[in-house]
Amino acid sequence: MTKVMVTAASEEQRAAWLGRTLPEVERVRPGLWSIPVPIPINPLRYVLVYALEISGGVAIIDAGWNTDEAYDALEAGLRIAGYEVTDVKAVLVTHIHPDHYGLAGRIREVSGAWIGLHPADARLLHDRYDESAIDALADRERKLLLRCGVPPLTAQELAGGSMFLRQLVTMAAPDRLIEDGDRLDLPGWDVRAIWTPGHSPGHLCFVEPERRLLFSGDHVLAKITPIVAVHPQSSANPLADYLDSLRAVGKLDVDEVLPAHEFRFLELADRVDYVIGHHEERLTEVGRVLAESGGSTCWELATRLTWSRPWETIPPFMQRSANNETLAHLVWLEVRGLVSRVPGEPDIWQASGKP
Predict the structure, then answer these.
(1) Distance CA 97, CA 166 (A)
(2) What Å distances lie between residue 77 and 85, 96, 112, 199, CA to CA?
(3) Using CB atoms within 10 A of its CB, is residue 56 exposed (0-12), middle (13-18) or buried (19+)?
(4) Per 3-state DSSP, what percentage of the chain is helix, strand, and coil (rounded to 5)?
(5) For the range 341-347, what are the long-range contacts, defined as Cβ-Cβ under 8 Å and sequence gap of 24 or more?
(6) Cβ–Cβ < 8 Å for 232, 137
(7) Can you spell out the DSSP letters for 167-218?
(8) What is the pLDDT, as a whole number, of residue 43?
(9) Residue that wins the pLDDT comparison between 345 and 349
(10) Whether the predicted model's global pTM rises above the 0.85 cut
(11) What is the mean pLDDT of the segment spanning 314-334?
(12) Which residues of 153-180 are buried (b: 16+ CB within 10 A; e: fewer)?
C-alpha cells in the first residue's frame, strides 16, 4: 500500500515531532492555542492540549497525565496564552487513557472546571482507576491472555504491566456526560461532539464546523495509527467500531485536523482512506498467515505477523498490545465468517475463507 503523506499544518510542529523535541506553544487561530504537555516515559512524548478562549476563561480539550512536570507545562502554556489554570472552565476529555484524562481531576480541584466524558468511557472509570478494583481488572486481562495462548508466567507479568499508570491519574467522575451529536456550551464556539469508538469505547472527537476544524484525539493521527484492541474493557468488536467511526469522520468537511499527538495536518479524507486500507491489508495478512499455519493461538499468530521491529525486540507491554490488536482483527474476521475458533484455554483459530 502506498504511504500517504499528509501536509503538516505547522511545519514547526512537524519538525519538533521528527526531531524528538517538545514543540512550542502555538496560537493556532484567534482564540485557539495548542499546548504540548510532556509524557516522557511514553514513545508519543507529549499530548497536545487545545485551549479555546471563552467568556471569562478557557475550555481545554484533554489534559495530560497527572505528574508535576505535566501540570507545570500546562500551567506555563496557559500563561503564554494569557491565562492561569484557575481560568479553566471546562475539560473536554476525548477518552480516559491517562495521557488525556489523568490531570482532569487536579485541574478541577484548582479551577472548579467541569469535566466532560462520553458515558461509555465514564462506565469504565471505577474498574480502571479505583484502587479497590484494579486487581480484578488485571485478573480479567490475565485470563484473556491465557485464552490467547500466552504462557502462564508471561500472562501474569503482562496482565499487570500497565497498572503503574494508575498513579498518573487523579480519579474524577465526569460532571457532564457528552453524547454523540451534543453541542457544547462554549460561548464563541460551535463545538459538536462525535462519538468515535474503537481506540476506547467512548472516544470522542470534536468538530467546529464554522472554523472547519476537527479535534481528533487519538482517532486520526498524522503518521501512526491508534491501538485498537480486544481487552477486558473493550467492546466485543472494537475494530468494526473503529472502522465505522473512521468512515463517518472521513466524510466531514474540514480544513484542518488537530490531533492529540504528533502534529496538526490537512487532508483528513486521504488520511482516513489510508488508515482503512492499512487495516484491510492487516486483515488479509492475518487470514493468510492463519491459513498457512493450519490453526494457531492468537499469541502464536501475533509472533508471526509483520511488525515495525522483530518480535523479540518488542517490549513486553507492547507485545501485550500486539496480541490484543491481533485478537481484534481475528474477531472482525470471525464475525464475517472468514475465520473460526475452537474455544478452550487456549482458543485455537482456523481460517475458513479468504478475507
Answers:
(1) 10
(2) 10, 22, 19, 27
(3) exposed
(4) 40, 20, 40
(5) 344/147, 345/146, 345/147, 346/146, 346/147, 346/148, 346/149, 346/297, 346/298, 346/299, 347/147, 347/148, 347/149, 347/297, 347/298
(6) yes
(7) GG------SEEPPTTPBP--TT---EEEE--SSSTT-EEEEETTTTEEEEET
(8) 85
(9) 349
(10) yes
(11) 95
(12) eebebbbebbeebbebbbbbebeeebee
Rounded distance between C-alpha atoms, residue 246 and residue 214, angstroms: 13
Cell of 97: 487513557
| pLDDT tens per residue across span 104-120 | 999 999 999 999 999 99
Give CA–CA dist 49/33, Å, rounded. Answer: 8
Residues whose CB is less than 8 angstroms from the CB of residue 181 and which lie 6 or more positions away in sequence, other chains included? 192, 193, 194
Residues 71-76: contacts with CB under 8 Å, at least 24 apart? 71/103, 71/106, 73/35, 73/36, 73/37, 73/38, 74/35, 74/37, 74/49, 74/103, 74/107, 76/25
Cell numbers for 75: 500551567
* Rg of the chain, C-alpha, whole Å: 20
Report the distance separating Cα 115 and Cα 218, nearest Å. 19
**DSSP string across 334-345:** HHTTSEEEE-SS
